[in-house]
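Two records follow; treat each independently.
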Amino acid sequence: MEENTLAIDSADISRTLWEFCVNGAPAVVITLDERGVYQARFVSMSKDSVTLDLLTEPAEGTFSPDSVCSVSFHLGNRAGIFLATVRELVPPRAAPQAHSLVLNLPRLVIRGETRRTFRLPVAQDLGVNVTLVDERGGQLTPRLLDISLGGMLVEFPIGQDPEFESGTSVRAEIRHRNHNVRLQGEIRRRERRQYGILFVDILQEGNIDPPEALRTILKAIEARWQEERARTKPAPGRGRR
């Protein structure tokens, strides 16, 4: 995680989630199984649960009680993520109402820097590869450092820095196993050999509308992040103060 990420402990979680619900903050819910990625929004909370409306139809059997999912969100100038267990999935009473996903309150919420979506660090052994095609048609193969539904951060090897200027257009191809997605990108920032790239054809009129292949790739990346976080979770009584 970056230095400006903030871990919110249990004392402030209720207040933070209440703020999301009051503002109807948008979210992305990802399950640990192979079902998919779901757009959602915060709607209400109680003493021990938080409820989101799913804006996309859940697959049958998804969100079974006690299953774990992650929730990525953005509100104002903050973005973040938390893991939570499912309490219940409430079907709509009538069309066009949404399914209501009731989650147990998380024990920890991670909030990060200003972003429309939460950026996920990419494990280098996961096999996610990136190819960039510049304005002259040259192909470049940087290392993917982190990614979100709206952009990514890549790094070039020593001696292979293309020295892109801010505003440069690139075509990006992202591959993982048999999933492949091509996106139009724009260089938004540079720090030494690292470049922040915005997916300009996804962020249209302020709405995030990623292709299914990108959702699937991010799901694999987030699942690995969840696994690694679970392995390194501190023992009870030894968390951050």
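The next record belongs to a different protein.
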Amino acid sequence: MTKKYVWLTIASIVSLVLCGIGEFYFLTSPDGSVFARSGALIVILGTLINFVDFGTIDTTEYLSVKNYNDIQTNINSGNGMAAFIIHWMSEQKLRDRIIKFQGYVLIIGTLIWGFGDILFCSVWCGL
């Protein structure tokens, strides 16, 4: 998992916590509406993955030492096509993981955005 995934996860958790705390301190009768808006923040953060990750992927994020050595061996032996295929497949695997992670973030954010008030009230308002 790259640093960008970690920062996105931390930002999502912080938005949930801050909106939950804001619900109690800024509203006289908490109804979960502010907590539900944290889902919108998570959706925005998930959408930003496209603009941040795809433009700044570093080869150290997807090339293992074995893949790097295989590429160098193929280049030295004059087999540039095999080196290109190893590099391309490694990059595509990373991009597939990024897209899956983005999908999970968008689904969780959408569920919190749509049903956050019900979840909030079933847990805290009933107490």
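Discussion point: Residues 80-125 form the longest helix (46 residues). How would you locate this feature using only the token line?
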